[in-house]
Amino acid sequence: MQLTLWTYEGPPHVGAMRVATGLRDVHYVLHAPQGDTYADLLFTMIERRGQRPPVTYTTFQARDLGGDTAEMFKTAVREAHARFQPGAMLVGASCTAELIQDDPGGLAAALNLPIPVVPLELPSYQRKENWGASETFYQLARHLVQPRSTEKPVGARPRCNLLGPTALGFRHRDDITEITRLLDSLGIDVAVTAPMGASAADIARLTEADFNVVLYPETALATAQWLERAHGMPYTRTVPIGLGATRDFVAEVCGLAGLPVPPTPDARAQWYSRSVDSTYLTGKRVFIFGDATHAVAAARIAHEEMGFEVVGLGTYSREFAREVREAATRLGLTALITDDYLAVQAQIEALQPELILGTQMERHIAKRLGLPCAVISSPVHVQDFPARYAPQMGPEGANVMFDTWVHPLMMGLEEHLIGMFREDFEFHAGAAPSHLGGHGAVRSAPEANETRVETAPVAAPAKPILNPGQLPPWSADAERELGKIPFFVRGKARRNTERFACERGVATITIETLYDAKAHFSR
Amino acid sequence: MSPVIPIRPEATGCSDVRPLVERGQREVFCGLTGIMWLHRKIQDAFFLVVGSRTCAHLLQSAAGVMIFAEPRFGTAIIDERDLAGIADAQDELDRVVDELLAKRPGIRMLFLVGSCPSEVIKLDLSRAAQRLQQRHAPQVRVLNYSGSGIETTFTQGEDACLAALVPELPAHSATQAPSLLVAGSLADVVEDQLGALLQAMGIDVAFFPPRRSTALPAVGPNTRILLAQPYLADTARALERRGAQLLTAPFPLGVEGTTAWLQAAATAFGVDAALFEQVTRAPRERGTRALAAHRPWLEGRSVFFFPDSQLELPLARCLQRELGMRLTEVGTPYLHRQHMAAELALLPAGTRLSEGQDVDRQLERCLQDAPDLTVCGLGLANPLEAQGLSTKWAIELVFTPIQGYEQAGDLAGLFSRPLRRRELLTAGQAVQRAA
Question: Rounded mean pLDDT of chain B?
């Protein structure tokens, strides 16, 4: 039993719903108690879908438990088939129905429906949403995929499938467009994109393509691995998020397609990052947390393309912990692998980053701590499904991310002015970035920024942190001098000074200590 | 029952109506959802759901962005080890509660809330509550109720919670002067307004649930109960078992409903007509004026209610009688004839009432009726909008202060806004087309 106040991932049947809702003609009958229909609103409200998810729930109640819930399930399957006429059906149980052991797969098979019926076994008490999506996609492929029947016409362009996008996915809609466009520019056609937009018949003909592009390993890796084993289809390892990764991706797909590698695709982000305003991005301390794919990609972009210093990297995707640990090690960090947001919050408080890249929850944490934040990964909220075209992948994805990550920060030249005229009545540390409103008003962020972590971290953070109780006290003038340092570097200055003082056994931190530390750490 | 509703023998409205009873897929929340407002109402209580990841996910999805620094609700997620018997679920629960209470010393009342999985595996939460109560008394009172979807529909979760709280209420002795107990969660602002009106009539009034668990109201034979919410079947029964007498009235929605509701109390406490008139006149007139502003948007328009909170009948009554709307279908998850008697009498005869749900069939009826406004849950609203219908999210009617005179205009506004918006956007598109 685990105490949970908030969770990054829903139960596995919600993952199955994301797959079913992404598909065009597949209906999911879920044996579930009254109330589990709440999951519909994730799709209709957060993603603003104009159609209900293709899910029928049995919504049994206590009075039904004494009777025949199996018969209820069969009726639901029969009626859903008659009403929606799907090309294939998924059948399964949510957490409660799993306990009553009605065997949805066997019951549905007994109905002898004229369409493929795919039973799902999603262990709700062990697994979570992304695993559920992955397993559902894999089972669909196992049940529906047919061997390649036709030979490829001579001279036809190479073809691939895009695997992984689902309903409720972070920017999946726009990533599909961006990557399809990129592949087209390379001379590669997309045969099937699945699950998003595919029909049951499309799943059946996945083998017609030459290779698979795995856009989101969390949902598609298991399926791609099986297609390689069973049907000899190679698949891509690089996820094209960021310019460097897009370049690697282009080289990888060109290799798989037998095409020459063209020059690197152009993106404005590359020039923007080199332009002088971006000088002030150098070494900004960034904390990254999300699903494994987006967190690893963000770490590479932050480090190689933005010139940030990655001070923390983590994921809630335990299935992909290894990849995140490797990425963290390359950056000299220890990855934070947890699904407890309080552990994430404790590490953020300890590290005092200048920018947080995370999920909806890290945005809440950032707001509480008064830190700038951009969202890079699911779980996300309604504002993360923008009306405009905003992919994360490919060249345009790199542009979108440059804008999105820089926006919460102060403009470079503005930060420069505050550094020059520190404690001036207009250019003072308490002024918010001028493009974010709150002009002139002292925002609460600086105070929050300075708030010392008094509570013990909930989980042991990956990096050893200073225990505030053991730190030397600050003299009043040193504290005042610290206040003259712009807020966006104040946390770092405080940390560095305290570390410096601790290492040297300084009894009280004075102005001298502050500047000694500054000299020590400036390189 | 209540003399304030003059029911003429020839006009009994829907009193004898036989609702269309359906048993198919129900697109409604389970009782756990009530934690969203109960934890805001009782400010020193923590709600610990003993359930699955689905329960935790429901709570955070229903709460939307309502994740506070320290939410006063959480889920003890049952895992494989608990199910396989490797870990003793009762020991595990003790450990989780110890951990929780150590972190949150401000908690004075802890509700262990049963869920579908905990009910199906027959995890005995009442035994757990007794044991934990002994362990943590007097600091923390530990109670339990079930908010599971197999036993409770949406607002019935509050009913189960309050019913569990009734045995904890101190006794109101038979020798004390009669007092009024208003049962059902109301927003603090509404509670203050209604309390002030009742006190101005000289009625000694208390509210249940209280804002703090340490200030529980007393109940006894001299207690008269007025329900502020229509979904409190078990709570009312539990209060009656404590000797209290239930007053029958319409619910305090709209000016008419609020007046009748106050009148039921006034009659029971022998408040004279002149005093009642003097106390209620000014807010009544304000409420009437506020309603009038919305009437042009709503009058003559049709409305269809999907079942949600059991508030549907009183809302339909208010929309039909005070704002001139036409009722196409009024769906409710459960029809409690006794508590709804006054409401049923006020609904126009022949209104199509439905109880329970078969959502696909109900959607067919709704599209067939093509109402001007559909009141439905969040899972249905955008899909219906996409088909050209205007909708009002039902959950807002539960979270927003809508009871009493001063909120009558806000209540009407919740229904008129979708229609005004549609008209604005349509007019905008017409201008663009013309340009």
Answer: 93
Write down the ipTM of this complex: 0.93
> Which residues of chain A carry a pLDDT beneath 50?
439-468
What are the pLDDT digits (tens) for A148-189?
987 778 889 999 999 999 999 999 999 999 999 999 999 999
User: Chain A contacts of B128, Cβ < 8 Å?
Assistant: none
Handedness of CA B216, B219, B224, B229 (dihedral sign): positive
Which residues contact residue A330 at a Cβ distance below 8 angstroms, ignoring those fewer than 6 apart? none
- Say if the Cβ atoms of B54 and A368 lie within 8 Å: no
Question: Which CA distances in Å does B137 have to A131, B130, B131, B171?
Answer: 42, 10, 10, 20
Query: What is the β-pairing status of strands A373-375 and A355-358?
Result: parallel
Q: Considering only the beta carbons, identify the residue of A38, A51, A83 that sits closest to B61.
A: A38
Q: What span, in angstroms and rounded, lies between the C-alpha atoms of A310 and A367? A: 20
Find the angle CA(B208)-CA(B210)-CA(B215) to the nearest 5 degrees: 120
Distance from CA of B184 to the nearest CA of A (A): 22
Position A417 scores a pLDDT of 65
Is A277 catalytic? The answer is: yes
CA A78 from chain centre, in angstroms, equals 37
pLDDT tens sequence across B61-91: 887 655 655 789 999 999 999 898 878 899 9
The contacts found for B191-194 with CB under 8 angstroms, 24 or more apart, are B193/B283, B193/B404, B193/B405, B193/B406, B194/B228, B194/B252, B194/B262, B194/B403, B194/B404
A60 vs B50, B150, B385: nearest CB: B150
- Using the Cβ of A96 and the Cβ atoms of chain B, whether some distance falls under 8 Å is answered with yes
Chain A nearest CA to B412, separation (Å): 24
pLDDT tens, B84-131? 887 889 999 999 999 999 999 999 999 999 999 999 999 999 999 999
Q: Which of B61, B78, B110, B112 to mutate to test the interface with A (most CBs of A within 10 A)?
A: B61
A363 vs A358: CA distance, rounded Å:
7
Non-local CB neighbours of B196 within 8 Å, separated by 6+ positions: none
Helix, strand, coil % in chain B, rounded to nearest 5: 45, 15, 35
Do residues A54 and A83 touch, judged by C-beta distance below 8 A? no
Q: Residue B100's CB: how many other CB atoms inside 10 A?
A: 17
Asked if B116 contacts B30 with a C-beta cutoff of 8 angstroms, the reply is yes
Residue given tokens 């009994």 in the structure block: B12
